[in-house]
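Lab notebook, bench 4. We co-purified these components, and the gel suggests they stay together. Before we commit to crystallization screens, I want a quick structural picture of the whole thing.
Request: model the full complex, all chains together.
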Amino acid sequence: MTLAPVFNLLSGLLLALGLLFWFAGTWPMLGRASYLTKLHYLGVADTLGSALMLLGLLLRFNREWPLLLLALLSLVVWNTIFGYVLAVCSQARPRS
Amino acid sequence: MAGLIVIGLRLLIWLLLSADLETANVAIGLAVALALPLPRRHRQLPVSALGRSLWASLKAIPLAYREALALLIRRPGREVEELQPVEYRPGSPVAALVFLDVFRITITPLTIALGMDGPGRSYRVHRLESHHPLPQEPGR
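Here is the predicted assembly.
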C-alpha cells in the first residue's frame, strides 16, 4: 500500500488552509485599522499562509524537496524580517 | 562553536540550493562557507545562548499558528506597546541573537518588534491583545 493518496489529501488540506489564511489575512487590510494592525494581519497572510502552501507543495512534489525547503526557509525568514522592517520604518522616533 | 553552527547553516543552504551531495559539490560548499568572513562577536558567542535562541525561534512557529487562529476567530482588541527584555547581554547586542529575537517576536501575528530601546536592554514590541474588546473612543 502506498502513502501517495494520504499525502495528496494532506497536501490539499494544507493548500486550502494556506489559501484561507491568505484571504482571511488580506481582507482586514482593506479596512480602516491602523498601519501596525494591518502588519499583524499581513504576517498571517503572507508568512503563515504561504508557509502552509509550501508545506502542501512539499508533500505533493516531494522529489523537489531541496528547493521547496529552501523556498520555505527563505519565505518564512524574509517575510518576517520584511514585516519588522516595515514596522520600524513606520516609527517616527529616531533609532539609536 | 557558535561559528561552527553558522558555517553549518551556510553549508546547508548551499546543499539545498544545489541539491547535489557529490563530494566535489560538498567540498565547494564547505570552502565557500569557510571563506566567507565570520564576525568576531560570533566567535565569542556561547553556543548555549545561540542554541537557546534558535530553539525559542522554532518554538515560536507553532505558537504563531495558534495566535493566527486566535486573531482570525476573534476581533483584535487594543494595541499596546511594551518592552521585552533582551535575554543575553554580554555588553553590546550580538547581531545573530538580535536577528533571532526579532524573528521570534515578529513571526507571531500578535506581536511585532519595533526595534530596541536606546541602551539595548529591551525590545520595543507592538502587541495586539485579542482577548479584549476594542475600547470605545469618546469624541470620535
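The radius of gyration of chain A is 16 Å. Worth comparing against the SEC data before the next meeting. Residues 29 and 37 of chain A are 9 Å apart (CA to CA).
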